[in-house]
Amino acid sequence: MNSLFAAIAESLKFETAMLLLVIAGLLVLAKIVSDLRAEVRGLRNAPDQENKPLPSPPPVRAVAPSDIPADVFTAIASAVYCTLGDNHRIVSVSPAESLMWSREGRRSIFRSHTFR
Q: Which ranges in 46-99 belong to alpha helices (H)?
């Protein structure tokens, strides 16, 4: 009879511990959902920033190399400004000397296909 009570008590301890664990998980989940709701409300109440124009990149001071068109050089300078910011500068721009990038792309496409 004692072993029966011990087994029931052990079972209740395990069930109680698991119940507390589930309740703690639900409380954490409720806190996360509450924080996300507050964040969404804050975004909805924020001033409309969609209509603001993006800052224009600073003028390109460097002279484009003669073998690269000026519009390509301007596009490269704009991409550098948009991704890295205005405290970076382009040191040099030169055309690719080989077709290794295209070969590697082709190789990865062919590698993804299965042969029958």
A: 70-84
> Are the CB atoms for 77 and 69 separated by under 8 Å?
no
Residue showing tokens 């704009």 = 78
Rounded to whole angstroms, the Cα distance separating 19 from 12 reads 10
Q: Please give the tally of structural domains in the chain.
A: 2
Q: Where are the alpha helices (DSSP H) in 1-116?
A: 2-45, 70-84, 100-112
Give the list of residues 6+ apart from residue 68 with CB closer than 8 angstroms, or none. 93, 94, 95
pLDDT digits (tens, 9 = 90+) for 57-105: 666 555 556 677 888 888 888 888 888 887 887 877 777 777 777 788 8
Q: Which structural domain, as residue segments, surrounds residue 66?
A: 57-94
